Amino acid sequence: MKMDKTKKRKIYLDYAATTPVDPEVQKAMRPYFSRDFGNASSLHHFGQKAKEALEQSRDVIAKTIGAESEEIIFTSSATESANLALKGITFANRDKGNHIIISSIEHDCVLNTALWLKKQGFEITQIPVDKYGLVDPKEVEKAVKKETVLVSVIWANNEIGTIQPIAEIGKICRKNNVYFHTDAAQAFGKVPINVVGTDVDLLTASAHKIYGPKGAAFLFVRKGVNIDPILHGGGQEFGLRSSTENLPAIVGFAKATEITSREMKSENKRLLKLQDWIITQLLKKVPDSYLNGHSEKRVPNITNLRFAFVEGESIMMELDWYGIAVSTGSACSSPKLEPSHVLLALGLRPEEIHGSIRISLGRWTTKEEVDYLIEVLPKVVSKLRKISPFAS
Amino acid sequence: MYSADVLKHFKNPHNMGKVKNPDGIGKVGNIVCGDVMWLYIKVGKSTSRRKKGKEIITDVKFETFGCTAAIATSSMITDLAKGKTFEEALKINKQEITDSLGGLPPIKVHCSILASDALVEAIYDYLSKNKKPVSKELEKRHLRIKKEKEIIEERYKEWVGKQQEIVEKD
C-alpha cells in the first residue's frame, strides 16, 4: 500500500509562516512558567530573579545586532513592533511633518498600519519595486520631502525573499534627517545584521520565525530617536511598552537568537544548496514555470515559484494530500479573495499570481524531503493542468 | 476548512476533460477570484418511460482553472446534470451543489454559482445553435453571465490565445 505510506508523510515547507520551537529553547523557557514566575517589576526576590533573566535576554539580543541593551524594546509580535515604530514615530514627530514612505512590498503589518495612519491624516508614499522585488534607493531619495518623518522598508520580503539594499536606503534617510524603520522579521537570523554602521533607526524582529516561541518580538529603537508609546500603563520597557513582560517567551527568544546566530553561517550554506536544487530541478521538470523574486539577492529559505495555467490553492491542497505543507499568494486562499500585493508589485498579472506558491525551508529540512517535493510537485502541476482549460 | 466530500471530488474529479463533438459548451469565469470553468454537454433523447422523447444531457465534462472548491463544484455539477432534462438541469442551484458536497466555506460559495452558470451557458449554447426556443428566464441568466465573462476574458487574453494556438496545431 504505497499510497498509505505517502499519505502518512509530514513535510513542513512553510518555515516562513512559523517555525517549531527548538528543544533547547523549550528547555531554557521551562523554569520561567512556575518556578521563576515573578513579575520583573516587583522589588522582592521573586521579581528580581525575573528582572535578571529579562535583562540577560535583552543583553543577548542587543549584542547580536550590535545594539545597546536599552535600545531593545520587547513586544508581543512583529506586528506590534511595526505598529509601535510607525504610529510611535509619526505621532511623536507631527510637528516636523506628516509624510511617511513605505515600499510597495511591505508585510501587512506595516502596510495596514500605514493605511490606518493615512485615515488619520498622514500622507503615505508607496515606492515601487522592480520586477525582482528590489527597491531602488534613488526612488526613496526622490520621494523624501521636507515633511517626511519616516521611511519603512522590509529587509527581506516574506513572500519572495528578496533582500533590500538596507545600508544604502539608510544612508539616504540619515542624510535627509528622516527616521528609518526596517521590518527584519524574515531577515533576522538569515542575514548578518549590525546596527553599528547601518543607518537603521528602528528594526523589527520576531522569535517565532527563528525557532523561538510565538508571543515575543522586539523593536530596536536607536538612542535619541523621538518616539511615543502606543501602549500606556506601568511604564515597562523604558516607558515604550507598558505590559508585564512575557518572560518565558522572552527568555526563549534570547536562546533562539543565540542558537540561530551561532549556526547562521553554516545553516545558510546548507539551505542555499537545497534552495538552488529546488529551483533548478523544478524549473527544469515543470514546463511554463518561473521563479518569482531575485535569483541572488534572496534569503536562503524562501522560494516563490509560479506555474502557468493552474491555481495555487489547488497546488497547495494537492501537496497537502501528499503530506507537504507550502503556502500560496493566490487570491483563492486569501480571506479577501485578492491576489498578493507583493506579487502584484512585481508587475505580475492576477492570473499569474494565482499559480504562485511559496516553499520555505528551515532547520529540519532534509535533502530527502526536498527530493520528495521535487518528485511530487511536477505530478501535481501536470494533474491540475489536465483539468485546466488553458493547458493541453 | 473543506468537507470530506469536497476533498474527495477535488482529489478524484468526475467527468474531467472534453466531450468529443459537444452539442453545447458553457465557458464561464468568476470575476471575484479569477476561476474559469468550461463545461461540455452532449444532448440526446431520453429512452426512459418517464422522460420518453424529451431531450436530456447524456454526457457532460468539464475543464476548470481554479481552487479546490472550484474543481470540486465542477465535478459535482457534472454528476448532478447527467441524465437530466434541460428543465431539471436549469433548476440545479448553488444550494443543491453545496449541500451535495457537504457544505462549502462561506467565502467559497461563489464557486458553486460558477458551476451552475457553466451549465446554463452550455444549455443556452445548444438551444441557440440549434435555433430552439429559449425561455425569457434563460435569456436573462445568459446575458448576466456573458457580461461577467467578458471581464474575465479581457484578463486572460494571452492565455486564451495560447490555448487557441495549441488547438489549431492539433
From TrEMBL, chain B:
Residues in NIF system FeS cluster assembly NifU N-terminal domain copies: 1-132
Top-level taxon of origin: Bacteria
One matching Pfam family: NifU_N
Residues annotated as signal peptide: none
InterPro entries membership: NIF_FeS_clus_asmbl_NifU_N
GO biological process: iron-sulfur cluster assembly
GO molecular function: iron ion binding; iron-sulfur cluster binding
Protein known as: Iron-sulfur cluster assembly scaffold protein
